[in-house]
Amino acid sequence: MKIGVIGSKYFLESLSVHYPLFPEVQFISFQYEMPEESSLLIEEAGKQTDLVLFSGSIPFYYGYKQVKRNFIEAIYVPFDELTVALSLLSISHREQVTLNEISIDLPDQSRLMKVLEESEIVEKSLYVKDYPWIYKRDEETQALNIAEFVHFHSKQYKEGKTLFVLTSIHAVYQELQRLSIPSRYMVQPKHTLIESLTRAISLLKLKKTEESQIAVISIQDYQQNLNGSDSFLNFLQKLSKRLQARVSLEYLNPYLIYTTRGALQAFENDFYNDIIGQMEREFQTLFQIGIGYGYTIQEAEKHSAQALFFTNKFLKSKTIACLVDEDQKLQGPLFEENHLVELKNEDETFQKLASELKMSAKNIKLIHQFISINNFRAFSAAELEEYMNCTRRSAERFIKRLIEGGCLLKGGEEHPYDQGRPRNLYLATEKLKTLTGV
User: Fold this and answer.
1) How far is CA 305 from CA 41, 123, 223, 292, in A?
2) Domain of life of the organism in this record (predicted)?
3) Is the pTM of the predicted complex or chain greater than 0.90?
4) Whose CA, among 5, 60, 235, 306, lies 20 to 30 Å from 377?
């Protein structure tokens, strides 16, 4: 396992002391002079390592867009109340200065206020400068003006208001030292550093476990004209070589491709952006794609079939892909703003209602998803039958039990355009609408 560490020389030296605690990991350092350089270092760090650990919120802020754009696994060492408390305690003991004789900079001054409040310290004259925008990573990137912070601290010191500086920015500390202004960099708690390394390794192990999961891709065209097509099978076999996968020769409706989650995710951008477009152009049709993850082949196949089934819920005006993961969470349509629906039956409210109605929690959750997707409008038994892929008799039985349990009520009739009998329509009551967990 390889972990890249991005930080200043001071941070890298402080952290490397703890590397021997984790002999199974290779740590690769990426040193900067100024935190803005993180945006340049992150790309190389992402290529060379499995996960990147930033020294703090500042370098992570500057590397965030590249992390997001390149799908790099990354975390940062948190700035917490322990850092503030230990730093103040150290200064108080060593420098013999009071709190109102210190100027302080930190990401969010609420951290300082929380430490003082819980320590029952009341101090009105505080010299504090913070930069809370560092946590607003999706907004336009701002520059951290080092000179502005140096000026803030040096002004208080030269005017005799303060005797010491506590800074959370290493570049500020270096400049204050050059100006011979008494100062120190925030204490890096041993506990926080070791915990950050432990968390990075745990995330990396989880990632490795996920990558080894089986992935099954189900593909069919909307008209199903390509069933048994030799040319389409040849296309998929060429695709499978790029995915380190194999195409099933047993199932041609839909076609099934077997690979691993890691291989598919490594190929993700090409698959989404290039392969689907190539399929559409070459075969002049649109496709339904279901992707399933699982720890066994049977589990991945089942999830892939579920994902493919859910592609039917969207307009067939473009290729639609959905994904069901190992936790039975549905994502889709992919390539757009993702929707996440949980198919598992662990929510207590569903279990409780299932016991009351003598139905399965799975069916109740599926019915709740159906009415939610349709914005709680009135529906017929035929629509529920199609959505749940069950018989009409089963759909009507579900409706009867939900009515008896106060979850549905009859909402009128639908009169078909042909000579058929009017169909009953049903509406969800508040009891069903307000169920949580979807």
Assistant:
1) 42, 63, 18, 7
2) Bacteria
3) no
4) 306
